[in-house]
Amino acid sequence: QVQLVESGGGLVQAGASLRLSCAASIRTFVNYRMAWFRQAPGKEREAVAGILWNGGDILYTDSVKGRFTISLDNAKKMVYLEMNSLKPEDTAVYYCAVRRLSESQYFYWGQGTQVTVST
Q1: In the chain, what percentage of residues exceed pLDDT 90?
Q2: In the predicted model, what is the mean pLDDT of residues 52-75?
Q3: How many Å apart are CA 112 and CA 96, to the nearest integer?
């Protein structure tokens, strides 16, 4: 069973930066894909960024390209999301998720961390 714990959320003003962290209780990241999702009030959950276990195949949703950076530390079993130039529309609960490459869905999720960006 994989457990994920996010941290780093908070209340910031527009233009500020935050760094989200996700600690994974997993033996190895090998052959896994990691991702950050978010869900704003009244909206569906959306994928924000994803990364392969070897640091490759990094993808971002269009709205965060150039502002957010996903990264991972295999040794520490950590996944990060560096968020810069935050906008009020980035306000959401952010979730960390992982899946095996052999699976098509993300079955392992964290509890989420709230990010609120004020004007």
Answers
A1: 96
A2: 97
A3: 7
Structure tokens given for 78: 């950590």
Distance of CA 31 to the CA centre of its chain: 18
Contact 7, 20 (CB under 8 A): yes
Which residue in 78, 110, 88 sits closest to 12, CA to CA? 88
Distance CA 83, CA 105 (A): 25
pLDDT band for 77, please (50, 70, 90 cuts): very high
Q: 14, 88 in Cβ contact below 8 A?
A: yes
Q: Which two tokens stand for residue 55?
A: 């640091």
| Dihedral sign for Cα atoms in the order 80, 58, 29, 93 | positive
